[in-house]
Amino acid sequence: MYAVEMKNITKQYPLVLALDHVDFALKKGEIHSLLGENGAGKSTLMKVLYGICRPDEGTIIVNGKQVDLKKPKQAIDLGIGMVHQHFMLTPVMSVTENIVVGCEPVRGVIFDKASAQRQVQEMIDRYGFQIQADQKVKELSVGEQQKVEILKAIYRNAKILILDEPTAVLTPQEVEELFRILRELKKAGTSITIITHKLKETLEVADTVSVLRDGRMIQSDISTKGVTTEELAQMMVGREVELGICRKTQSVGKVRLNVKEITLREKEKTVLDKISFQLKEGEILGIAGIEGNGQTELIECLTGIRKADVSLIEKDGEKLEGAPGDFISRKVGHIPEDRMTRGLVLELSVRDNLILGYQKLFQKNGVMNRRRIREFTENLLKEYGIKAPNISVKCSSLSGGNQQKIVIARVFSEDPDVLIVAQPTRGVDIGAIEYIHERLLKLRDEGKAILLISADLDEVKNLSDRLMVMYDGRIVAEGLPEQFDDMHLGLLMTGAAGREGLQYE
Amino acid sequence: MSDLMSVITSTFSMSVPLILAALGGVLSVKSGVMALGLESMMTMGAFCGVLGSFYSGNAVIGILAGMAGGGLFGLGHAVLSVRYKVNQVISGIGLNLLAVAATTLLMQIIWDNKGSSPQVASIDGNVFTSPITYIMLAVMFFEYFLLFKTRFGLRLRMVGENPKAASTVGLAVHKIKYIGVTASGVLAGLGGAYLSLDHLNMYVRDMSAGRGYIAVAIMILAKYNPFQVLLCALIFGFSDALQISFQGRGVPPQIMAMLPYAVTLLVLAFGARHITPPAGVGCHDDD
Lengths: 505, 287
What we know:
The complex is a heterodimer. Chain A has three domains: about 1-235, 3-Layer(aba) Sandwich (Rossmann fold); about 240-330 and about 415-505, Rossmann fold; about 345-415, no CATH class. In chain A, helix 13 crosses helix 14 and helix 14 packs parallel to helix 15. Helices cover about 30% and strands about 25% of the residues of chain A. Chain A is built from 17 helices and 24 strands. In chain B, about 75% of the residues lie in helices and about 0% in strands. In chain B, helix 2 packs parallel to helix 4 (about 90-110). Chain B is globular and about 60 Å long.
């Protein structure tokens, strides 16, 4: 018996065919993982089911009845709930208000706040969450906010639950907790679809997998029993990929970057608290941590974008300070954490973006040497396998993976000694991840010193030769990656395990 | 002593239109649409009020006409910014320019005079006896109740904070915005009608004289809270009253006439720095 059947769903966007005659079926009471790379069409397919986006073709059958979904309200009435990747919450309002809005208990026209709060608190208690119904959403952690989103669906009696990339922003503990909730909901008869590109999690929580690639259903209704991550990865990418490349350094050389006691205060709050470390040539030093614990500020201080209150940065024994331009010319490369805001000027061409920050090298008396730029950038496109129609197209028209490759090509091609690399593979497909990881390891083997800041635990653990954990503006632990297991890392990242982590040294 | 009394009376009477327009602006901003078009809605309120009174000979009908005129421009602002997703600043300023041009043209056509209208039937009495003052107070209480106690208010605030979230829980985002913005026009129109039919008994070109913009400043300073609008408006009303009472007393009147605008500038520069509008202002539910 199916909770949802979608047949022949086609959706054409102005430039891309997002869904190409896709069939998808969700059985009652199962957890079904919808697997695929970014842009494979997973989210679009689920948005069709939730009534956010109308398909050009195809039929949808919910609980045996054919439906025509024009807006989310209809989907909600059919018992479909969706937890969006970017939470649909209003931070300044209370948990209760966020959950009940749209079907509020009322007395006449007056919003019955007391009764709403009671109902919500009862739900919270039933699932054993540590949230208060009258708390403001902005006071909650990301994991708790997700619980509010799930409660929102449960409050509306959702029997079919869609979760879009639910684990992307969670710590290992929060992921465990989420899976516990999902299993509980499944036991209660809820049918669940999770959209994800994470293979390990798929195998851990799902009963069934369907794989989408380039808007086509590659294989549907695969049982998670007897399928391996390698097989799934191959279906996702369409070729064999090496997952989790893990190759440690052979030789660590002298100290390239010596950072002493970076301290930064902002609005009465210590954002960075005496952060010191040494970065040596031939190593990747990883920093793990939940976003918002000072990583952004640390990166900004290390690249000259922001001036710390107290800081001494030495490169090769000489003091490093000044504007970002000075850092670049001292051969400190920077791959920013957000390519959209810091890495690229999306409205400029691929050619301009590839020399951004290094444009001084391509001019004479203030006039750009167009021929040299063209030769240089065309070479980079080839060398880094950037898929762009030509060098004049805008960066905004490229996929995330190709945009990230542009940032990387630009920085790597200028041969920096020290690299500050932040979130290098965020929102990038598996093929590009594999490529970027390979490149980073190759640079390290060439003797570069690399600082890697990433929220992706697998990534920092696999690539780093040394690992530090950052929490609340401090380095709370340091050691070899294999000395940390995921659960312990999770505790360190949330501050639950304190400085005792330093014992690893 | 009589000076003091006249400044106090004048403070209140200059505040009434500002409060009405700012209360309207709160509804608009709370629903997620910037209220820069208030000036045009006040202008239309003042003009249409006189027009209504001129043709009917009845001040009450005039005031209703003023509210309709303001509401019409409010609706226009809603259509532009919600339906056609025009940048809300541009839409607001565009409407402000349109209102000045349209009223001047209509004055020329109807009364053959670009400067002022003939005198029409108006509301008698001072600010303490004027029905509009009490309507204003009622609106203030009602608006607070509406925004923070009713189901509609919760939905309106949700739409203003995060239109996408509102649409994913099935709220009629567009309808709610239309209501909020049109209501802002009606209230600003009432404020405008007060200027022409209560304060005076005729329409004078450029009558609102930037009060719509001052109302925007008041609404921000009041943190978009109806009760605080009253208090903040009194600051501006007072500066306006002071300006009037100093006229013809040796101080160059042009300098004193600057006072309300200088206060606006100072308030926006120093008072409103940490006040955040609803997060969804200028955002749409479907992009």
